[in-house]
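Write out structure tokens for Putative e3 ubiquitin-protein ligase herc4-like isoform 1.
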Amino acid sequence: WKLFKNNPEILRDYTEVHVFNWGDSAILVKDDELYAYGVDNPCFRSLGPTNTPKEIRFLDHLGVQAIATGLEHAVLLDYNQIVYCWGNNEHGQLGTGNNLSNFIYKEHNLPPIRQISCGQFCTLALSYDNEVWFWGRQYNVSVRGKIRAVPIQITFPDYINIESITAGCGDAAVVDSEGTVYVWGFNGCGQLGLGHRNIVSDPKPVRIFNGCMFVIIGRNRTAFVTQSGEFYISGSDRSLEDFELQSISFPGKITSIAAAWGKDLFAITNDLGEVLRWGHDAPSTATTKTNCTNIVEVFKDFWTPTVLPINVDSRQGIIKHIAPRRCNPTRVTGAAWLSQPAPDTTSTITLTSSVPKSDCASAKVGGCIDVSDQFNEQICSDLTIKLSDDSIHAHKLVLYMKSKYFKSLLEKSSKDLKTLDMSNWSSRAYKAYIKYLYTGELEIEAAEDIPEIYSLAEQDKDKNLQQECMTLWRKNLKSHNVINLFYSAYNCQQQIFLQECAKLLQEHLP
């Protein structure tokens, strides 16, 4: 990338990067701290031109889960599911309640957030409570494009469960669990797929598909990938009145799709290992095969794109480009492709480490260490987890390797940390969670513990544990215990479990 071409050594100590500002600026990540590099802009808060990385010191975040950027504002989601915004606030895109710029703002009044997305002058967030929040200005070409200086909740039908969100330049869309797409925004080129180019103030369903798997928005175009594998583009030149969705042909089966809000450019990968593109600069009814080895490479010198589906092992809006310094640089399976290409088709490219791994609970070969027998063993324990009525003898290395939450927590803590107070969680549920980290198996004493374990899995972004909790819940939910389980779900404010209880209650209550 041009930003690093003349100084590739800049990347030596930074494992992850978010490129923005038309490819002229970047936020570098090292040990979950942020560093500014490149052309000055409001996101750097007057740090000036940064020919060498300068630490962004005004954040108090716990780790980095996701980064998104608009034209002149940045948003970070940390591992406490808290949102931080900074940069230009002329359109209320920081959610502070005013238009003061270069102001870091911690969104205290939001529920725990799991996804973020930025448009040109706005911010979109999806909570674990199935709520979509919006702040900023979605479009500035009409008096109807009102500034929302504080987060507002977008209204959807009560019965839908939202899976993903996407913000384009002046538009937004969500997909629910049934594959229905809801869209709203500027729509000046008919990009929302509603058959017109009128401004859409409130979410409207796109009723063209039987089911949508992915939706992603560029500048004036929207891409839809259906559950049956079809690929459509909506939006046309302002001089045209053709609002029909355009079917785009492509080889193989789509495995991922990417776009960024500032350009009508879409990239896909397929099951043949190919990276293909479709762009407004060369519109066609078919994708074009590229020489890129990575879907993000299509957006070289432009912007870090959103890539769908979101990989639970990667961080949204962040390119992982190089492994830690302990890796052996002569044993390369992927390259630091921000300065040269790499043979990979995902947004994560790593180097092979000569250091044996220890993140496997059960294997005894292949460089993995079996830690399953070490659960609550006092010998060699270097950390005590205090519970309300008990304690757990734990090992920092195991927690660091097995848990994203503990990894971030330990990196932020003093090296002399000896005790963690987790007495706000129930002892039974927390023990089951820690034992799961050691053994890879979930053992519960009572079904009432499942919602709390699920909350811990959410905190840790552990999709496998979340799915196992759901499976156990459905297996144990019966008519004789539905009331007790309803209260346990309610106490944890877990809507997904409350919905399961509601179904059973409707069947058995008069």
